[in-house]
Amino acid sequence: xxxxxxxxxxIQEISRGERHALLLVGAAQPFLVGETVELVxxxxxxxxxxxxxxxxxxxRLRDFPNHEDLxxxxxxxxxxxxxxxxxxxxxxxxxxxxxxxIEGNVVKKYTNVTEVNLYGDGGSRGNPGPSAAGxxxxxMDGNILKSxxxxxxxxxxxxxxxxxxxxxxxxxxxxxxQRVNVYMDSLLVINQLKGIYKVKxxxxxxxxxxxxxxxxxxxxxxxxxxxxxxxxxxxxxxVNKVLDDVAESNS
Length: 251
Known about the structure:
By secondary structure, the chain is an alpha/beta fold. Helix content is 27%, strand content 38%. The protein has helices spanning 8-15, 67-70, 157-174, 187-193, 205-218, 233-250, and strands at 3-6, 21-25, 36-41, 46-60, 85-95, 99-103, 106-110, 115-124, 129-138, 144-155, 179-184, 221-226.
């Protein structure tokens, strides 16, 4: 498994859901979409988790907009030749099993996370069109335990909504949660999972069935609550962040 060394500051940005891409100058080996890469805190010389590569883009450093914000090298960007080939990795972050939240420079460990609130959202620009899922997990005191986003390619809004829920539940399980309170602004998804609406779209059946099984096997209890869009801003922001990053990298 390849590894990437990053600073504590970059790890904080990733853990808070503020960074979804890394820019490497002169990478020794190529990276592949779908590859799992170890993420190492170079300040503490310890692994903090892994990333799953979603997209790989290589071009001259000068051709990356705002490359100063994406570089992970400790050196100043001015020390790099702008004609050097750089590789931008868009990714999904998977922290190690220990529960943690980044607060400034302190890693606050959670050893007894039994109940969490999961906010999920999905979006498709075109429906069908470029789509992404986003989710944010909070403890019962309102602290963010995990936030992430996932680019899905060309699909529909409903598929993106269900994917956000599925991946969010997977992260809740990794955090050790036994009870999950799900909040989404998709009335369709919430009412289908509550049994109020039938799932008529055959394309949604596989992921719907997988989520039902996931809820039954991984948790003691899962509740589903519909919220207005303005109460789901953080998850919505994750969706738009992923879609904007992909659109920018393809421009």
